Automatic annotation (TrEMBL):
Region Disordered: start-end pairs: 87-118
Name of this chain's protein: Uncharacterized protein
Transmembrane segments: none
InterPro entries documented for this protein: DUF4316, YodL-like_dom
Start and end residues of each DUF4316 domain: 35-82
UniProt xrefs under Pfam families: DUF4316, YodL
Biased amino acid composition, Basic and acidic residues: 87-100
Limits of the YodL-like domain: 1-29
Organism: human gut metagenome
Length: 136
């Protein structure tokens, strides 16, 4: 059986840990509690990895980071890898670049030009086979 006893003598408080083997002073018992960061609760609720509070939410390593570690010979957690893959599927692998509209229009214009050229050649071939071309 053990307990902490606080003695008040001459206006001073002292805390002592007492058990069957004796007692020792524990001054940290009387220290005011540390002010808790309000983000700690949010991080504890949302955080995917259960490491200590660091102020960064969902700081799980990415698949690329884990692959680099594995290639360099470091051990990686398969659970971390699975979580990273799941997170990337859920949130996408980052912002993918959208194709340039100008490049798309240019490509479509070339495609349309090729179709017209091909149609003209086909028409010319039909005229040749049917003898419709006039000599100048």
């Amino acid at each position: 059986v053990s307990d902490v006893v606080v003695l008040h003598q001459n206006g001073q408080d002292t805390a002592h840990y007492v058990d069957s083997s004796g007692y020792r002073q524990v001054p940290e018992f009387l220290q005011p509690p540390e002010k808790e960061n309000p983000l700690k609760h949010v991080e504890d609720t949302i955080e995917q990895n259960d490491n200590h509070f660091d102020g960064i939410i969902n700081n799980t390593p990415s698949v690329d980071e884990l692959e680099k570690k594995a290639k360099s010979g470091e051990q990686i957690s398969l659970t971390d890898l699975a979580d990273a893959i799941k997170a990337e599927k859920t949130h996408g692998k980052g912002k993918e670049e959208k194709p340039s509209i100008r490049a798309q229009l240019k490509a479509d214009k070339k495609k349309a030009q090729k179709k017209t050229d091909k149609a003209e050649i086909t028409e010319l071939g039909k005229e040749l086979t049917h003898g419709k071309i006039e000599q100048i």
